[in-house]
Amino acid sequence: MKVYFIGAGPGAADLITVRAARILNAAPMVLYAGSLVPVDVLEHCRADAEIFDTAKLNLEQQVSCYERALEQDIDVARLHSGDPSIYGATAEQMRRLEQLGIDYEIVPGVSSFSAAAATLGAELTRPEVSQSIVLTRVSGRASAVPELESIEQWARHRASMCIFLSGPHLKKIVADLLLHYPPETPVALVHRASWKDERSHRSTLGKLVSEVKVKEWQLTTLLLVGDALAKAEGVESSLYAATFTHRFRRASVRKRRAA
Predict the structure, then answer these.
(1) What is the pLDDT of residues 68-113, one digit of tens each?
(2) 4 in helix, strand or coil?
(3) Which of 142, 234, 136 has its CA nearest to residue 177?
(4) Ordered domains of the chain (ranges, CATH)
């Protein structure tokens, strides 16, 4: 018997991994976060699977499902949105499983920040612009963010930032970002990346709040910030340049010498 913590991806049923789909197709019991995972993803489950929506269950009730699966010696597929390693609330479940002597495995998934970047047609790491991505959020009722990881602290680096669950706090987040990013910094809001009702809005940091109705971006919204979002041409990576040699390919064109 084993519990599989599966990254369900950002929302679209076909953005789940092949490994995840195979496990879902075999698991007799499935637990999924119904408030974050679209029901379409469950099309990968076997027809007779026993399915529980964990949005309605507390942690101990979920653990009782694992205990029953142990008694019946059946595998469990536990679906979390995006990738289980990011805001997945999986650590406490794994601790309970270890205490019960239940084996588990983590199956990675596509994160919503990757899906949001794809929606925008953006590469978040661009040469001489940003080579780092900050994945963060603001404090919520379920868990607080350490003071040293506040939006204002991360903004000092002016790297590409992906701020999860940003909708309800948009005005405060923008104000904190403006302490370090210039007002003309490109930004984008992406709501439900890859879902059927996906929508996005591009702007600049200084104009964003005046252009949108904050209440329309309350849930499942990601805010992306940084100069990497700009459409303007910039310095290109040398990786595929004809003048660049690496262990798998020799340069086919010589670099021009500076005059």
Answers:
(1) 999 999 999 999 999 999 988 899 999 999 999 999 999 999 999 9
(2) strand
(3) 136
(4) 3-107 (3.40.1010.10), 112-229 (3.30.950.10)
